[in-house]
Amino acid sequence: GAVVSQHPSRVICKSGTSVKIECRSLDFQATTMFWYRQFPKQSLMLMATSNEGSKATYEQGVEKDKFLINHASLTLSTLTVTSAHPEDSSFYICSARGQGDGYTFGSGTRLTVV
Amino acid sequence: GENVEQHPSTLSVQEGDSAVIKCTYSDSASNYFPWYKQELGKGPQLIIDIRSNVGEKKDQRIAVTLNKTAKHFSLHITETQPEDSAVYFCAASGTTSGTYKYIFGTGTRLKVLA
After folding, report:
1. Measured CA distances, B113 to B15, B79, B86, B107 (Å)
2. Is A29 left (phi over 0), alpha (psi -120 to 50) or beta?
3. How many CB atoms lie within 10 A of CB A70?
4. 3-class state of residue A62 by DSSP
5. What is the rounded distance in angstroms from the CA atom of residue B45 to the CA atom of residue B39?
6. How does pLDDT run across B75-99, given as a tens digit for each residue?
7. DSSP of A25-38, one letter per residue?
8. How many beta carbons lie within 10 A of that of residue A89, not counting itself?
9. Rounded to 5 degrees, what are φ and ψ at B60?
10. Which of the residues in chain A have pLDDT under 50?
11. pLDDT tens track for B11-33
12. Measured distance CA(A89)–CA(B25) in Å, rounded
């Protein structure tokens, strides 16, 4: 079945630095990928829709200059958290749509900003 | 805006009993309803889904029912086992600008007591 690999699974960074998270579709091509943020014991909040070869579409309230998304190929989307602050600490999850309607999610990235 | 309500937020059942989780969606254009299981520190995994032209779907111990008129859909887990303990999310999806964006419910934390 469809597999989405997300890397890294955990990252700790200092305030003010940038962190890049990768999301790869391993056995299928994904023209569209989605990036979510999840706070403890809460639901998934859609941050942006990543479109291959074009600009990402951000949800209301999400700073596009802070959360840079690049979808340069049909199998890779990246999320870069720029100038990270402690309030950016969260669980970030990507998903990609294969041939069917269902999305496959990555395993998530736990970001801690200290 | 589009909204998906999910109840209950927490659910404890004895091993072997059934568990039912209910969701209500607001967008009548929604036509695809997946259910995801999320274990601690991991990404969500699709467990079952249903399209709007079907009223019920079953896969072993898991079933989903859909009432389009009432905009309700439910997850039924029979003969629960301790490994069913996790957070379950419902979602509703329809074509919005061709992207099939998901709207997630708030999640249900299921505990199966041995």
Report:
1. 5, 12, 12, 19
2. beta
3. 14
4. coil
5. 9
6. 999 999 999 999 999 999 876 555 6
7. ESSS--SEEEEEEE
8. 16
9. 60, -115
10. none
11. 999 999 999 999 999 988 899 99
12. 30
pLDDT tens figures, B34-90: 999 999 989 999 999 999 888 999 999 999 999 999 999 999 999 999 999 999 999
Token readout for A90 is 């969260």
Residues 6+ apart with CB under 8 A from A114: A12, A13, A14, A15, A86
**Which chain A residue shows the shortest CA-CA distance from B99?**
A32
What confidence score (pLDDT) does residue B96 get? 57
Q: Which of B53, B104, B110 to mutate to test the interface with A (most CBs of A within 10 A)?
A: B104
> Residue B28 to residues B6, B49, B71: CA-CA distances in angstroms?
17, 17, 7
Spell out the residues 6+ positions from residue A42 whose beta carbon is closer than 8 angstroms to its own.
B106, B107
Among the residues of A15-70, which ranges form H helices? Answer: none
Q: Least CB-CB distance to A102: which of B34, B101, B107?
A: B34
CB-based contact, A107 to chain B, within 8 Å: yes
